[in-house]
Amino acid sequence: MTSTKQTWQERAELQLAAQEVLYREARLLDERRFDEWLDLFTDDGVYSLPITLSDDPREPALIRDSKAGMEERVFRLTKTLAHAQNPPSRTQHDVTNIEVGDLRDGQLEVFCNQTVHEMRTGDVFHVGLAEPRLLTARCRYLFVPDSGWRIKEKTCLLIDREYPIYNLTFIF
Question: What CATH number did the domain enclosing 76 receive?
Fold first, then answer.
């Protein structure tokens, strides 16, 4: 693995570029522009919400999708009658505490915190609807700057991952 040390100015430029992609991803998800969200990932991209701190892919996860899995998830949310998303969630993704790591072998590790505010409209007959919900995670991204800042890995560790999380049908 080759690590490249950056000057303060180069790190600041990497920070701003990563921040721009993270904010764009949040906006695309909130606007339900899922096909454009998919385009942010490399062809071998991975999106996961693990339960444990282990990097072992055999460990259980709430979500562990390859690019094909992400495409299937988007298809189910947009092209099928997904009862769990009828009516669809309104979300607001907040991204904070963005920190860039070292550039290694053309890939940049980025850490951040994310909070997703979710609201689904409904009435008294819809149990759990019309109640705001917050989900918070510590996230790690692996970006490939030379590919137009596409995401190779997105891993979000929910802070309440060991408790029941009902109806997690939107994209974190």
Answer: 3.10.450.50
- pTM of the entire predicted model: 0.90
- Residue 163 inside a domain? The answer is no
Q: Is 69 helix (H, G, I), strand (E, B) or coil?
A: helix
At 19, the amino acid letter reads: Q
Q: What is the pLDDT along the chain (172 residues), one digit of tens a residue?
A: 566 677 889 999 999 999 999 999 999 999 999 999 999 999 999 999 998 888 787 888 889 999 999 999 999 888 887 666 777 888 999 999 999 998 999 999 999 999 999 887 766 666 666 778 889 999 999 999 999 999 999 999 999 888 887 777 788 8
Residue 21 placed within a domain: yes
Angle at 81 between CA 76 and CA 85, to 5 degrees: 75
